[in-house]
Amino acid sequence: MKHVKVLGMGCANCKSTIQLIQQVVDELGVEVQLEKVESLPEIMKYKVMSTPAVVIDDKVVHAGGIPAREAVQSWF
Predict the structure, then answer these.
(1) CA separation (Å) from 66 to 1, 46, 59?
(2) Over 90: is that where the pLDDT of 45 sits?
(3) Distance between CA atoms of residues 42 and 46, nearest Å
(4) What is the mean pLDDT of residues 2-27?
(5) For residue 51, which of 23, 22, 10 has the smallest C-alpha distance?
(6) What's the predicted TM-score (pTM) here?
(7) What average pLDDT does the structure give for the chain?
(8) pLDDT at residue 10 above 90?
(9) DSSP bridge pairs for 3
């Protein structure tokens, strides 16, 4: 099971990114551990300068804006 983190301070784009990831994994029937990270010190550990950012298994796969559905599908 992949561990997915969405990094962001709670903006609308961050919430939309979480919803999009949840929709895609539900459609694909993939089990993931989805976590929202809003702690600035925790976000800074990943050295991202823009949010929302997506981290899968401790690797940043996206930063800045809502990812395209096709990109999210390719991660799983």
Answers:
(1) 23, 18, 17
(2) yes
(3) 7
(4) 96
(5) 10
(6) 0.93
(7) 96
(8) no
(9) 33
**β-pair partners for 60:** 55
Task: Give me the phi and psi of 74, to 5 degrees please.
Answer: -70, -25
User: At residue 43, what is the residue type?
Assistant: I
Give the DSSP H or E segment for 12: helix 12-28
* Gap between the Cα atoms of 59 and 3, Å rounded: 10
d(CA 76, CA 61): 12
DSSP β-bridge partners for residue 6: 36, 54
Among residues of the chain, what percentage have pLDDT more than 70?
100
Residue with tokens 């929709």: 23
